[in-house]
Amino acid sequence: MSSSVSLAAQAAGKPLVMALAICSAFSASSLATAQEKQLESVVVTVSRMPKIATEVLSDYAIITSDDIAKSGHKSLVDLLQRQRGLEVVRNGGPGASSSVFLRGTDNKQNIVLIDGVRVGSSTSGGATWSSIPLSQIDRVEIVYGPASTMYGADAVGGVIQIFTKQGDGPPAPTVSAGFGSHNTYKLEAGVSGSHEGFRYALRASHDESDGFSATKPGAFGFNPDRDGFDNDSVSGQLGLQLAKGHDIGLTFLHSDLKNRFDNSATFDDRSSTKLASYGVYSKNQILPNWTSQVQVSQSQDRVVSNMRSGRTLFDTTQTHVSWQNNFTVFGTDILQLIAEHRREEVDSTTRELIGARTTESLAAAYQLKRGAHLAAAGIRYDDNSQFGSKTTGNLSYGYRLTGALRASASVATSFRAPTFNDLYFPGFGIASNRPEKGRNAEIGLYYDNGKSQYSAVYYRNRLSDMLVNTTVCPIEQATHPFGCAYNVNKALLTGLSFNAAVPLGDFKLRGAFDLQDPKDETTGRQLARRSKKHGTLGLEYGLGKLTTGSEVVFSGHRFDDTNNRNRLGGYGLVNLYAHYDFAPGWSVFGRWENVFDKEYELARTYNTVGSSVFVGIRYGIR
């Protein structure tokens, strides 16, 4: 392992040579017999419209409903932990506060969408991951790399979009029930279908667990009690075709999470998190070459905590109006024009945070296809009432070397807006803080013959005006005696990301490996809670109605703090799962997490799940 890491590290300075060497390792016979016509899977998030996957220039990953069902995962955070380019942090067990790092960027430097509706906190920044129920998710798309041209502020590391189920065909009910370690229960039910232009899909679920102590002895506020959770959630999509090419619809998701955490040795600390997203849309084929889509949406991220020190409230409401126009030009090219309005409103028990800001945006993008050549370009202007205007852009080019092999390269800029905490939190925020800025360049090779998939990507993302918590505040020292958030640092995120999935008879081998260097250039230190290498390796066996699999999730060491004094050791976890269809529509599933009961930390002095089992039964046609 060490020799391969060393070789990759040496090659990091020559990414194109490295990528070509990997592709040359593919057998000549495999390339010669590649299918010229690819399986036409579709990606939506990259260009905000359905696009054939083989024509997408950005690096991406898709988690299908079948992947979710067979894996037996209980939470979205656990599901994302096995994906390439992603690292997760959780302050305790399922239901606890969690973060997701994408290509070495912070949780605040990525955008999360639910059916096109942006969700997250304007105070802490980023999504409240523990409140997004996996039971409501049908599909996940992960877009790696800056996407500010399409989505505006905060898409520095990428975008993760969650899709709930759509209705199609005759009525199809689904039910599921499961039980596992720590008295964990899951109950789900739903129905979906369509009739004479009307589509519907509704789901409801209840999850709960007694859990275990979130913290370890010696931690601040350590309490040996169990820190469990319970979550109730519903989601739905309703759509109606008024006429051919004219559709209206409604999407919604509502989640209520109640969990316990440790902040006092003698008090039962609790929090309640409400996540809600609602969207209404109209899609219209105005002309044969002109499609218009208008969406009005709103999301809420509300966290109420009850501790010995008192009650706290952090409540974000985002209202979003977008108008997107797609024009087909020159037969195969696409011109996109987008206008958007977003309003963020914050309510809090911390009075200084109460307020609102608006962002007005205009964007244009062009996608070109000429034989084996693919290209895309875009520009966006965002004008924020709080910190002013920002302009971002991107330029991408791809070339099909064969029907199965393509190469691409891109450059893009991005920015992250300061959160309300960065600006106004007492003793921390500075009202004059500016947005962080990012400049990314990457090159990649992708191979997909419909059966085997390989990819190798090198990226270099330079961040400036990074907002960090400095111990000595350079301004307003009297009101910030212990430091503040300030635009002081620069960071360089470089990495090589490899992915492979290969069928071997009745087996399927998959693996991913990320070799990265997320470094604070101002201090020369490794960014907190991010490793220099991490990955997964899995082997799945499928024969008829039975699917079984094993996987290893591994990571190198990390540091829990910006000064790199508190080291978190590397780890390797072994998981097993199985899925069996025992009757039409009926299946049983099971998952054994952390088989060897490995002790490890994702955050210092916080416990992680030991060896645990979850089994269930499901009815429904996937």
Automatic annotation (TrEMBL):
Keywords: Cell outer membrane, Ion transport, Membrane, Receptor, Signal, TonB box, Transmembrane, Transmembrane beta strand, Transport. The keyword Transport applies. This is TonB-dependent receptor. Pfam families: Plug, TonB_dep_Rec_b-barrel. The keyword Protein biosynthesis does not apply. Residues 205-594 form the TonB-dependent receptor-like beta-barrel domain. It comes from Noviherbaspirillum saxi. Belongs to the TonB-dependent receptor family. PROSITE patterns: TONB_DEPENDENT_REC_3.
